[in-house]
Amino acid sequence: MLLPDLCLSRRRYVVEVIGAALFSAGREGYRRAGERLGVPGETVRDWRRRFRSRAELIAAHFLGWARALDVSLDPPVGRESPAADAVEAIGMCTRVASLLLGRRSPWSWATALTAGGLLEINTFTPWPVPE
User: Does the pLDDT value for residue 79 go beyond 80?
Assistant: First the structure.
């Protein structure tokens, strides 16, 4: 199934809403984020839980893409948590991709670079990898 770059597989909400919920972790609770975004708090909690459970894989994936796009990049130093590192890696990768390949929103790039599977359940990485 093909998805537009504004959707994630098996998710009802657009990736910008999901991304905002993930990005606000640590700054506001899941209930408050849900209220602000018009999403049930439990849904935000589930997104964050899934993201945290795959944070190291997500960070490695996006750092791989960032290095493939710009070999001069230095990997970021670990931050406060694997989830924060993953958000940092997504940000770094999507900045480079937008500069080199054309401007898009960071979460649109995140969708494209994971084939819509950023929050998928798979235990292996089914995402496209740079060659």
Answer: no
What confidence tens digit (pLDDT) does each residue in 99-117 have? 999 998 888 898 888 877 7
Contact predicate 125/57, CB 8 Å: yes
Is 86 a domain residue? Answer: yes
Print the domain residue range for 23.
15-113
Buried b / exposed e along 39-69 (16+ C-beta atoms within 10 A): bebebbbebbebbbebbebbbebbbbbbbeb
H-helix segments, 13-129: 15-23, 30-37, 41-53, 55-69, 82-101, 106-113
Single pTM value for the model: 0.82
Asked if pLDDT for residue 124 goes beyond 60, the answer is: no
* Cα–Cα dist 94/106, whole Å: 5
Residues 130, 14, 119: CA angle, nearest 5 degrees: 50
Kindly state the DSSP code that residue 12 receives in the 8-state scheme: S
The pLDDT score that the predictor gives to residue 67 is 92
Give the number of domains in the chain: 1
